[in-house]
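Methods — Computational structure assignment.
A single polypeptide chain was analysed. Its primary sequence is given first, followed by the predicted tertiary structure written as structure tokens.
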Amino acid sequence: MPKGLVIKVMPANCERVFDLIHDYDRRLDWDSLLSEAYLEPPFIRAEKGAVSLCRGRPILGSIGVRTIYITFDPCKVAAVKMINRPPFFESFAASIRHIAISENESKVEYRFSFLARPAILRPILHPLMQLLFNWETRKRLKALSHYLHLEK
């Protein structure tokens, strides 16, 4: 199963970064990957058990991934796992861990794992998808950092 880790220092404390990442009313303000992001009813805020839908940009096929929060510990860590079966994905999971550096700086560790489908194409899909995930995650975290910097 392909895995990845992307680490980025943020120009804000853990609380501010955590809150912004999981604020679906503001998600599209900074998230460079998504064209749509929301929590499904009855959830109005991210929390353990909440279900979200995040849809990628059209250039990436507008794939919609439904996830459920399996861990939600504010200012520390949140983790999700995919609960639908969009094209090319057998499974997907991710976590975001927040580590304090100083009063105005923190580190984000984004870990992901996935399994592609169909199985017969995994030797081709896994390296391509892993490369794309790493690149997109770096891009997203850079956009988040830039947004936080402008928000100061």
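Note: The chain is about 30% helix and 40% strand.
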